[in-house]
Write a structure and sequence with these properties.
This protein has about 120 residues and is an all-alpha fold. The protein has one domain. It is about 65% helix and about 0% strand. It is built from 7 helices and no strands. The longest helix is centred in the middle third of the chain and has 20 residues.
């Protein structure tokens, strides 16, 4: 079995996957939210979108640094994570959000957001 693991690198990236999943899981259970901070400094309309991207990039970076197989790729992963943000203005302007989209957020902020009108 050990030869199979070494020969085919079955567990390559396992540390990354574990930490990358553990960080948001801990955040969900502890109530830590980057969205609250972003809602304070922005109009709140796209804070959730930007917040989840930033949180994802941070989790990617920490997980890549912790995984010996991906340490050399950590900064490339971060750069690659920021590139899709260039599409946000286009998506906000030209893509209509579905009325069936899932609303995810902080429970106390969610009630306020649903009552408030956004641009």
């Amino acid at each position: 079995m050990e030869e199979l693991i070494e020969e085919h690198s079955i567990l390559r990236g396992a540390t990354f996957g574990f930490i990358h999943t553990l960080i948001p899981l801990v955040g969900f259970y502890t109530g830590w939210s980057i969205n609250r901070f972003l809602k304070i400094i922005s109009n709140g309309a796209i804070a959730g979108i930007i917040g989840i991207v930033f949180a994802h990039i941070i989790a990617d970076f920490i997980a890549a640094l912790a995984d010996p197989d991906l340490q050399s790729a950590a900064f490339g992963i971060v750069i690659g994570g920021f590139l899709p943000l260039l599409a946000v203005p286009f998506l906000e302007k030209y893509v209509t959000k579905s009325k069936y989209h899932t609303v995810v957020g902080d429970h106390e902020d969610l009630k306020k957001d649903l009552k408030r009108k956004h641009r």
